[in-house]
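Budget justification note: compute hours in this period were largely spent on complex prediction jobs such as the one shown. Inputs:
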Amino acid sequence: MPERRNKGGRRRRPDRGERSNGVARPRLPELTNPFAPVEILGEEALERIEDTAFRMLEEGGLEVRSARARQIYADNGAKVDDESQMVWLGRDIVREFVGKAPSRFKMHARVSDRDITVGGANIAFAPVGGPPNVSSLDRRRQSGDFATLCDLIRVVHGLGVTHVSGGGLVAPIDLAVDTRHLDVSMAHITLSDQAWFASGIGRTRILDALDMVALARGCDRDQLLCEPSLYTVINVNSPRRVDEDLLDGLMAMAENGQPNVVTPFTLAGAMSPVTIAGSLAQQTGEALGVIALTQMIRPGCPVVFGGFTSNVDMKSGAPAFGTPEYVKATLAGGQIARRFALPYRSSSVNASNAVDAQAVYETGMALWAAVMSHSNMVMHSVGWLEGGLTASFEKMVVDAEMLRSWFETLQPLEVNGQELALDAILKVPPGGHFFGEDHTLERYETAFQDPVLSDWRNFETWEEDGSRTATERANGVWKQLLADYERPPIDPAIESELNALMARRKSEIERTGL
Amino acid sequence: MPERRNKGGRRRRPDRGERSNGVARPRLPELTNPFAPVEILGEEALERIEDTAFRMLEEGGLEVRSARARQIYADNGAKVDDESQMVWLGRDIVREFVGKAPSRFKMHARVSDRDITVGGANIAFAPVGGPPNVSSLDRRRQSGDFATLCDLIRVVHGLGVTHVSGGGLVAPIDLAVDTRHLDVSMAHITLSDQAWFASGIGRTRILDALDMVALARGCDRDQLLCEPSLYTVINVNSPRRVDEDLLDGLMAMAENGQPNVVTPFTLAGAMSPVTIAGSLAQQTGEALGVIALTQMIRPGCPVVFGGFTSNVDMKSGAPAFGTPEYVKATLAGGQIARRFALPYRSSSVNASNAVDAQAVYETGMALWAAVMSHSNMVMHSVGWLEGGLTASFEKMVVDAEMLRSWFETLQPLEVNGQELALDAILKVPPGGHFFGEDHTLERYETAFQDPVLSDWRNFETWEEDGSRTATERANGVWKQLLADYERPPIDPAIESELNALMARRKSEIERTGL
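Corresponding output:
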């Protein structure tokens, strides 16, 4: 352990207690992956998957449960049958329209220094979305409510590891179904300062969210058209079905120049073939078929190729995540997205029922695949538990530690004269140590990542302090973050306008249902 | 969930209980990494590290605490000073001798179908080595003894995920220090059937181990000369010191054509510079300097470039593992080893005090770096806990699950007509499912990895069954493996000779101390 010194303006090392009590860390800036992506498929395999995907669209078609969407497909050369709601797309049409989508785009937050670029080698982490339940060590799994959703947003903000503020971190079932999207939008806008995900179910909800985003950013819908500021995820109801509410949301997003993250729900063995190759072919066809629609609506509007292929447990039918099959599908999905020059989305997910070793090894496998497949958006990367049925407070803290570790791993390894330290190496005698060297003392405070959760004290000290596992320690971390939470600044006039807009829309919806 | 069917010779799916109770899985065969290695350093950075390493050997030198080893260095052109015990090596000498080492070699087990190739894109997993303590959920951390060491070897054998049977999985402190190497060798030979690690401390121990290996394989020392059959790890006592006992072991191994795994103990900030670049330079210099010695002794004898660079916790001085710094050093170490056409060794390690989320996320990061750096030997990959101070029974089971997941991830992703499943995709209607399809039923039993430890049942079922975490379930797995353990067959005549050899050597050592 280096001795304390304080000469020549050198900083003293912080007090031990001071450091170990602090759970705040700098928020992660934009992240670029310096490594080449891991490639699992050769050219011939990619061609076969692509050909199968195109044949699926040509011979099998998609069931498009929106007359308006079918009309758009028909107007752009697809074969359409309104009775069966089927749409058949030739590969030339798919190629033509998918080719209009941008390979990267900028996402605008309400605070411009939280803007990010989606595409290329950039990676954005997003928190868990969609679970009906929430859990912590203090209260066992229960249904979500709005107060808990707000706490989850606060903890995510405090953890500072995400680039996007998520969508429904848990479903607020205590709020009215028809208007809860307004409360959720308001929570994301005021409790965080990043771009966020709106629920893509229905046109009205998207338009409401867009009005609120425009107000929060102090701009109008025209400016939003060329400045993407809101995401939504559009799941294909695999196999080969796209539901009307989602199509309505997707069309509203595309018309307004906002990015849809088009993600087929291809769980191998259930909603897609039991083989990963077959599931990838289906995922590719479904994603490209729907992505083409966005470009028919507004050529050049941002869109993301979403991969979610995993396998189900063939014993129970339950989805599995972070499995070898998941990893392979994620790596291959990245290659396919790059083949079509589209930004790629995957996830950091697991199927464990507790924040235990299983939760972490499954998440860890999913996460390395997400990062090394060059995923541009890694969804569910903070707080996902139990196959997505539960948002876990402790899992959020564990995930944040894992994301910070990856973030630091992706920073450049400096190899210059000072870093190479030849003088220090020559100065320390054989069998000596480097603790007291100037080269060490000048750098040791910032040389290594300072973890929030990891406990590196020796066994005896750790045992005397209660033998707490990482999950038990995580419980203290999120509570501290919640206690320390400070709402990011927002112009009071804008907040007041947002409240007025929300009140007006609630009243309209209650009155007219629209 | 697929319904049971049994027609046309199709296998029925196994009974649920039958599968979930079974903890046995096929032993992993040899493993080759199909992915390109992840490269973190460019050519210029590699050149700088190499140059710094060479300057360290030229200007700083190594302290070589064996007169015989120094004489060998001197005879081969190095500058030697016997008073200070220092050896200075020019880069031309290092290049010349390191260049004689093979880039790959075959390791012979006593059962030939457990032979493996070390080098190229091959990966061998080895269990934890060296801890003084052992722990399980049943009995808290305590010192090791021989009975427990044997149980650890049995569990590793039962898990079936390693390619090497390890060295001291725990120190058997109940046995006499001077003769325990004989008991440990006997345990590895009879309780397992793989090649294994002998303690490299001292010439006598290595020669005893070699005699036992030769007997076990039914060959003589001459045959061993061209058939590597025993490993040892030689740690450089960083910085720049090589101890006499280890040099004696190393020389005995090299003379007999057996592989030394030369591993500097470069913990950045303590035994090497606080920067990863500096630690890599020192690691490279120390490893190459000692590897050169092996080739001066016996040109072409197998040797492995070992990387163990990590950082210490600058708050406590304790080593940290699986950190971002560890990952970077592991990836870079692989590039450096390949630069010198040497097989590479790294580790799957963590610094947690419990088999918890921290243990797994640190191990997970170390493991992906080990695999994706193209490590040929991944040491400590089963059972390592607490920075290597403890062998954990439950961690063994968790690690085995992680290794099986990696193994499966590294198997080829088949993309042929049958796997692409176009017929099944076209047959299942939009919104339908694939559970009942022939394509599914023909494959579902073997389509996906069948985990030992992961529990994918729904929350309610899991809760009714006791809400057991993965670590708690692991406790049942290793006990089952121990109960089911069957000693691999060995010729009784050979075993009898081994026992006689051991008895004779014990008597000699007790009488003469040699």
